Amino acid sequence: MKLEGLNFELTEIRGAVTAFRAEVDAAQWIEACRAVREQGGRLVSLWASDARNEGRGFTAHAALVVRGGLVVLSIPLAGTSYPDVAAIFPAADRMQRAAFDLLGVSASGADDHRKWLRHSAWRPDEFPLRKDFDARQSSVPSTSLRTGVSRHESRADDYPFVRVEGEGVHEIPVGPVHAGTIEPGHFRFSVVGETVLRLEERLGYKHKGIEKLFESMTLAEGARLAGRVSGDSAVAYASAYAMAVESAAGVPPPRRAQWLRALLLERERIANHLGDLGFLGNDAALAFGLAQFLRLKEEWLRTHHALFGHRYLMDAVVPGGVARDVAPEGAARMRAEMDEIEKTVSRLKVIYDEHAGLQDRFINCGRVAPELAARLGLIGVAGRASAQSWDLRVEYPYPPYTELDVRMATHRNGDVAARVTVRFEEIFESLRLCRLILEKLPAGDVALAVPAPAAGAFGVGWVEGWRGEVFIALEAGSGNRIRRLHPHDPSWHNWPVLEHAVIGNIVPDFPLINKSFNLSYSGHDL
Amino acid sequence: MYQLLKQIAITGIRTEAPPQPDEALRVTAGRLRAEVLQYFAGALTIRHVDAGSCNGCELEIHMCNNPYYNLEGLGIRFVASPRHADMLLVTGPVSRHMETALKRTYDATPDPKLVVAIGDCGCTGGIFGESYASRGRVWNVIPVDVAVPGCPPTPLAIMQGILTAISAKKD
Predict the structure, then answer these.
(1) Cα Rg for chain B, rounded, in angstroms?
(2) pLDDT tens for residues B57-76?
(3) What is the band of B32 on the pLDDT scale with cuts at 50, 70, 90?
(4) Interface ipTM
(5) Binary contact (A288, B130; C-beta < 8 A)
(6) What is the model's pTM?
(7) Of A308, A334, A327, whose CA–CA distance to A431 is shortest?
(8) What pLDDT score was predicted for residue B95?
(9) Other Cβ atoms within 10 Å of B81 Cβ, number
(10) Domain tally, chain B
(11) Residue A95 shares a structural domain with residue A227
């Protein structure tokens, strides 16, 4: 296949995802990114790898969406630099900086060369994802154990935030330890009075070496880690991982397993949306909403535990299929529960919609206009609430979504209210899909043994998780091991847009706006 | 408002019985005197610190306050600042990038204080272990009283860990 307007040939990547790949030079790399952007496509992910042990150098990779599917471009580097694409896709900025922190390959011509995932755990001249880096040790000594305040070394991160200057401007630093039960990250607000002029995020606090860890694992072991890249998206990651392994090995899973994976993915979506709707009510001072939605979520999770052995469905999806089948009694229990939950959520939607105080906080709060969303590349739930009609289940359906005819929920307002509405609609749609899946569930095995892929075999997984699309690129090593694996969270695209969403809003609305995006720190920091 | 009140009435009271303390979860015995623990048992305030988790444990900590478990109904609540807290609830393997923040949070918590490590990662480093980026279990970095295993531990297990920490060890 050829990409429209480009003169290089693409080869197909086997597997459930419609995907292609090509090795390109610097000129083709830039040309391809421009062409994709012009045709309305977008960047899915950008990462790099170290192929020096295979007698090559470093390689930079970009996954792009075009009309025909997913295209993975790889540019082998003579040295350690490749052409910047952040000028074309703004979301690439942090991905490029992370690629430098981890592999020491840099985007030439980029505006921003500040570190991103690295704070102080390793030296600026060390690159953890290089094959000659010893993962077990840190060259930077740890702070001494169990000490009092005075003996704490403060190894400052020394991150150069952008300063806003002018009369009456002051900064509010928030985090990494936040006031609520949420993940750690730092937010630097520049404000005048209560109004936010600028928000700058500093992430990377949760970096725990996930990509390096994958490289020490077999393909079977990696499944467990994949489900823990971002705990709230266990099914999305485990499914993308399984798809990538099956794609590298060239073995599709049994049909029944594909359908059960979709069932689990939709159940995960419902669980998270229920929780979010509760917390969004709570952040707008309607504690009733939190109690009601968390009750529903608890019952939903108990069913997960009873039928799939885990409240968050961790380890339920494995390469080759799924870990557990659904018995007819289980299906009956789910059906009855769905009828109940649909009634209750419908009632709660009426209450939310008609609650003046709640709507007053939701409407026009944290607005991302469709034009801005398109320019910055907002995706997932937040993207759809800003008229970015991307949903893999609709645009590039893989089995069983090819047979389910998913109805996408979209909204144009791009405010907290729109993100709430999209969540409500997606709950109803996912309930419909779950019922349909249970009705049409094909008979047969739920798992098969995946043969070892050839060393160097490449595979991809691409799944519409509850937050947005989760992408995994896998390069197999010899003996069933992982040579390189890049998991990509939709939060990479949406964190930078959150900085824009809060401009002009008041500081006390930030928790509400942040919650309406509900982005992953762990999935981003890796 | 009628709909809202009606929904509350339909829902009724869902709260279940709280778990009992479990001595097996205790890591450090008798760090605090029984009289002090008596004092905590009346009303406890908790500061949660995510030191590098996958966010799975956070989901279950959230669930401790759903109507089924109603942790706040036992007089135990989460507070926004470590300076208002009696206990730190720490999740995750401690990432090196969170090490300083965790220690500072520990120091900011007034004595006498309790620390409960949550989840397999908090107990042992879990799947992430120790590496260039991770310090592993919580007590590689700060003292821990009680550790609750699980990936993630259920809300009942988390509550059991909290209740164990504030109950005096019976000799």
Answers:
(1) 17
(2) 999 999 999 999 999 888 89
(3) low
(4) 0.91
(5) no
(6) 0.94
(7) A334
(8) 95
(9) 13
(10) 1
(11) no
Q: Are residues A104 and A216 in the same domain?
A: no
Is residue A131 situated within a structural domain?
no
Task: Please give the residue of chain A at the shortest CA–CA distance from B66.
Answer: A294
Nearest to B66 among A148, A288, A295 (CB): A295
In terms of residue numbers, what domain contains B73? 21-165
**What range does the domain containing A400 cover?**
210-525
Residue B13 lies in a domain: no
Question: pLDDT for A447-459, tens place per residue?
Answer: 999 999 999 999 9
Q: Residue B11, Cβ neighbours under 10 Å: how many?
A: 15
Cβ-count burial B13-32 (b if 16+ within 10 Å, e if not): eeeeebbebeeebbbeeebb
A386 with A242, same domain: the answer is yes
Q: What are phi and psi of B151, to 5 degrees?
A: -135, 85
What are the pLDDT digits (tens) for A254-299? 999 999 999 999 999 999 999 999 999 999 999 999 999 999 999 9
Q: Mind listing the pLDDT tens digit for each residue in A156-177?
A: 578 889 999 999 999 999 989 9
Do A247 and A101 lie in one domain? The reply is no
Distance from CA of A255 to the nearest CA of B (A): 29
Q: Under an 8 A CB cutoff, do B55 and A140 touch?
A: no
B contacts of A521 (beta carbons < 8 Å): 55
B139-142, Cβ contacts within 8 angstroms, sequence gap of 24 or more:
B139/B27, B140/A145, B140/B94, B141/A145, B141/B51, B141/B94, B141/B99, B141/B102, B141/B103, B142/A146, B142/B88, B142/B90, B142/B102, B142/B103, B142/B106, B142/B115
Nearest to A208 among B55, B95, B142 (CB): B95
Q: CATH number of the domain that B86 lies in?
A: 3.40.50.12280
Residue A284 within a domain? yes
Two tokens at A90? 């703004």
- pLDDT at residue number A150: 39
Q: How far does Cα A334 stand from its chain's mean position?
A: 27
Q: Are B90 and A318 in contact (CB under 8 A)?
A: no
